[in-house]
């Protein structure tokens, strides 16, 4: 089974960052509530633009990504998180060769 790595880059105004980080952590726990699908995660800030945040997520597999994409709107933290995020700059999934 190959883990699936996700990178999601988006803008967040500086005053909203503490809440976005809190909601992100909460959301990751919600995603793992039924079964552990999110193996690890990091929330990163871009070095030359402190309003760009990156999620680096490692998923159990591609199927876990698909399942959670379909469940996105049902997670309690997703609506507020979406309201605080600005532009979505990049979103992609990768597998090792």
Topology summary:
Elements: E1 4-11, H1 17-31, E2 38-46, E3 49-59, H2 62-71, H3 78-84, E4 88-94
Antiparallel strand pairs: 1-3, 1-4, 2-3
Helix pairs in contact: 1-3
Shape: globular
Write the CATH architecture name: 2-Layer Sandwich
Radius of gyration: 13 Å
Strand-pairing-aware structural class: alpha+beta
CATH level 3 topology: Alpha-Beta Plaits
The largest β sheet comes out as:
4 strands, antiparallel
Count of domains: 1
Could you give the distance between the termini? Answer: 13 Å
Beta fraction? 35-45%
Brief write-up:
The protein is an alpha+beta fold. The chain contains 3 helices and 4 strands.
Descriptive report:
The protein starts with a strand and ends with a strand. The chain contains three helices and four strands, in the order E-H-E-E-H-H-E. It has a four-stranded antiparallel β-sheet with strand order 2-3-1-4. It is an alpha+beta fold. It has a single domain, classed as Alpha-Beta Plaits, CATH 3.30.70.100. Helix content is 33%, strand content 36%. The mean pLDDT is 96. Helix 1 (17-31) runs antiparallel to helix 3.
Question: What are its keywords?
Answer:
4-stranded antiparallel sheet; Alpha-Beta Plaits; single chain; alpha+beta; 97 residues
